[in-house]
């Protein structure tokens, strides 16, 4: 009897051609059995997790509100908190401010999965690492770095510049450490905004915006009336001023002072001055 069972099983395997075919058939039969049963699909609760596409590096301007956004999926009934790493200070719990510093606020729209930490009137000392944390067991968190910067305006050649009459005056203004390029840069001469379409002619400006913005004011065939105070005023940074002296063949001792940029310098020296200003602190 045992021999007959063995022979039948062997014949069945040979008919299938391979064990894999038998396994496939068995799985298909099992699948058909499941189709005949009313079984609800299994739902796996992954739990809260962070949306990693949100930026972890935030740059803010001194005095203008900073925002750090944390996007949490599948939050459920868990609580979101914000913590400052510098002193491990708990700043907000849910939508409530936990610290006595009322500049910190947690913003959340129930229609979204975003939890945003707002810092009003940020200062440079507020720079550092902040953590968005979810109260799971154990807690999970994501860290973000805030950099609070104050734009710097540099006017090359200041505080005084001496050029020869008839030469081209090139005033270069550099704006650094700005979260975004200044929307506008206004040049003025003796506190009056420069009109590039004035009858004087030969006055133009070229501005290249980016992480570092450079604006160049060109005044061709400089004359005595072009002497005076020139001011570069970026819309999101402090203005900077220098005094220009247009000389008629004169060579005052001031021109020999070190550290002053003369337009008679070779182009390489001028570019070196720009490079130092850009790479400097």
Quick structural gist:
Helix content is 16%, strand content 38%.
Structure, explained:
By secondary structure, this protein is an alpha+beta fold. It has three helices and 19 strands. The chain has a six-stranded mixed sheet, with no helix packed on it.
Summary tags:
six-stranded mixed sheet; 3 helices; 19 strands; alpha+beta; 281 residues; elongated
What is the topological layout?
Elements (H helix, E strand, L loop, with lengths): L1 H15 L2 H17 L13 E2 L6 E5 L4 E8 L6 E5 L4 E5 L2 E2 L6 E5 L5 E6 L8 E7 L5 E10 L2 E4 L4 E5 L4 E8 L8 E5 L2 E2 L9 E6 L4 E7 L8 E7 L5 E8 L19 H13 L2
Parallel strand pairs: 2-10, 12-19
Antiparallel strand pairs: 1-3, 3-8, 4-5, 4-9, 5-6, 7-8, 9-10, 11-13, 13-17, 14-15, 14-18, 16-17, 18-19
């Amino acid at each position: 009897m045992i021999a007959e069972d063995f022979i039948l099983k062997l014949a069945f395997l040979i008919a299938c051609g391979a064990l894999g075919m038998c396994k496939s058939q068995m799985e298909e039969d099992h699948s058909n059995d499941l189709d005949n049963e009313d079984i609800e699909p299994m739902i796996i609760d992954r739990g809260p997790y962070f949306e990693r596409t949100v930026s972890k590096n935030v740059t803010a301007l001194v005095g203008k509100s900073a925002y750090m956004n944390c996007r949490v999926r599948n939050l459920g009934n868990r609580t979101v908190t914000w913590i400052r790493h510098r002193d491990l200070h708990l700043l907000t719990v849910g939508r409530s401010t936990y610290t006595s510093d009322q500049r910190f606020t947690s913003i959340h729209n129930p229609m979204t999965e975003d939890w945003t930490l707002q810092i009003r009137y940020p200062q440079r000392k507020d720079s550092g690492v902040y953590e968005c944390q979810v109260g799971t067991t154990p807690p999970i968190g994501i860290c973000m770095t805030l950099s609070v910067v104050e734009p710097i305006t540099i006017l090359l050649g200041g505080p005084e510049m001496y050029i020869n009459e008839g030469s081209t005056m090139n005033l270069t203004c550099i704006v650094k450490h700005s979260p975004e390029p200044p929307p506008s840069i206004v040049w003025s001469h003796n506190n009056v905004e420069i009109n590039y379409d004035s009858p004087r002619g030969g006055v133009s400006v070229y501005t290249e915006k980016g992480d570092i913005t450079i604006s160049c004011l060109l005044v061709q065939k400089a004359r005595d009336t072009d002497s005076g105070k020139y001011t570069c005023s970026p819309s999101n940074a402090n203005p900077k001023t220098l005094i220009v002296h247009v000389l008629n063949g004169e060579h005052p001792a001031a021109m020999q002072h070190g550290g002053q940029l003369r337009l008679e310098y070779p182009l390489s020296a001028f570019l070196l001055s720009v490079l130092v200003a850009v790479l400097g602190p």
